[in-house]
User: What shape does this take?
Amino acid sequence: MITASIVLYQNDKLVLQQVIQSFLCFRQGILFLIDNSPQDGLKDISKENTVTYIHNSSNLGFGAAHNIAIKKAIESGSKYHFIINPDIEIKEDVFTPMAEYMEKHTDVGMMMPKVLNQDGSIQNLPKLLPQPFWIFRRKLRKIDPFGAEFINRYELRSVPKDQIYNVPILSGCFTLLRLDAIKEIGMYDENFFMYFEDFDLSRRMHQKYKTIYFPEISVVHGYEGGANKSLKLFKIFIKSMITYFNKWGWLFDGERKKFNKETLKQFVK
Assistant: This one.
């Protein structure tokens, strides 16, 4: 069985209905809607019996809400579970190819497809494990005279666009999880309210399984860059960044160097 979850927070109903229908159209499985909104106004968004709606009494955050669905997916006997953002647009069956790839490659614990902007350009979401300074440098890349070279390396922009590869950081906007691997390495770390929880989960998965970028299929993501526009979200971003580097190391992180070196080796001809 394949399951999926979407975490909600006062979402646009039309946009949400589109991603729900895409999942129902392309896959037979349970879709969990975990609602962190103050009110349960989205409870009637779908009448399908394969859609399970759960309203939380408070905003638990991204990872904690998805963990509710992951637990239920495991209880239901699901083998593979998709993490889907509510602003994802799905124009083709991405579920079957990703699940089939994971079925054939038992050493893969986590995957993401190519993610596009509305204009068809690529969102460069797979990344190397960052050093603390890299996070700020990426934010300031528009005024950094050497920013292009740095970004190309950090976000692996020079890699051929159709190459499948193993990378330590995958985005949480659209991700496939092998649930047996999740049982082994753990679910989302709930110390992250929002931001960096995908970095942390990818890294833990990468320690024991391959975490694969799979550009043979694609989805469209309505990227908002909220932390660049909202002081409240920027504060959450900084708090999560501190949580991440307190956990994994600020300056001294031998695993970071090892994983990044192994990743870059894949592209040496």
About this structure: The longest strand covers residues 210-221.
